[in-house]
TrEMBL record:
(6R)-10-formyltetrahydrofolate binds at R64, M89, R90, L91, L92, N106. One of its GO terms (cellular component) is cytosol. This is Phosphoribosylglycinamide formyltransferase. The keyword NADP does not apply. Transmembrane segments: none annotated. Belongs to the GART family. It comes from Eilatimonas milleporae. Keywords: Purine biosynthesis, Transferase. Its EC number is 2.1.2.2. It catalyses: N(1)-(5-phospho-beta-D-ribosyl)glycinamide + (6R)-10-formyltetrahydrofolate = N(2)-formyl-N(1)-(5-phospho-beta-D-ribosyl)glycinamide + (6S)-5,6,7,8-tetrahydrofolate + H(+). The active site is at H108. Pfam families: Formyl_trans_N (PF00551). N(1)-(5-phospho-beta-D-ribosyl)glycinamide binds at G11, S12, N13.
Length: 203
């Protein structure tokens, strides 16, 4: 399965996907890495791996649809079959999301539907929850919403600070993002009635 990975920043989840795709037998490959920020540090991981890199700076476009048309065209041009949002910090409009419906996934650093949006770890610590985690889900027009593919639970420890907790959750992100991509790529799941279901076994 050909992946298009969209990033805006650090790119540690991109790096996890690169490593997974370099594992013999992994059923996906990265066809293109696209950043909306020209200086995203994560672009270095892509360059080191020799992957095609495209920068589409949203500031170069007058409207969101114009930016998203360019994004779409670039994904198409690279033969992308599954879009992986990996710290991509632009909200995507309905038209774009619907064009990639059930073919675009995101990773979010909380156990959705809890803690949508930003500052998830600060809010979890503020609430005193004892377990948090991360979620890979299909993307829907509402932010951090959509059928859940995979989650990992991560304990909140007594001395945690937002950075400590973020680092622990990030390790789990790096495990489940490739695992979720594998499930999609192997055709193990389908979306039905708004939920991810196991695909009927092939007999
Ligand atoms: C991750 O915590 C991810 O869950 C969130 O943004 C962060 C991106 O980190 N959506 P990185 O750029 O993959 O290192």
């Amino acid at each position: 399965l050909k992946l298009g990975v969209l990033i805006s920043g650090r790119g540690s989840n991109l790096q996890a996907l690169i490593q997974a795709c370099n594992t013999p037998g992994f059923p996906a490959e990265i066809a293109v890495v696209i950043s909306n920020r020209p200086n995203a540090p994560g672009l270095n991981f892509a360059a080191e791996a020799g992957l095609p890199v495209v920068t589409i700076d949203h500031k170069d476009f007058e409207t969101r649809p114009a930016f998203e048309d360019e994004l779409h065209a670039s994904l198409q041009a690279h033969g992308v079959q599954l879009v992986c949002l990996a710290g991509f910090m632009r909200l995507l409009g309905n038209d774009f999301v619907n064009r990639w419906r059930d073919r675009m996934i995101n990773i979010h650093p909380s156990l959705l539907p809890a803690y949508k949006g930003l500052h998830t770890h600060e809010r979890a610590l503020e609430d005193g929850v004892r377990i948090t985690g991360c979620t890979v889900h299909f993307v829907r027009p509402e932010m951090d919403d959509g059928p859940i593919i995979m989650q990992a639970a991560v304990p909140v420890l007594p001395q945690d600070t937002p950075p400590l907790l973020a680092a622990r959750v990030l390790e789990a992100e790096h495990r489940i993002y490739p695992a979720a991509v594998r499930m999609v790529a192997e055709g193990k799941i389908r979306v039905s009635a708004g939920r991810v279901q196991l695909a009927a076994p092939v007999t």
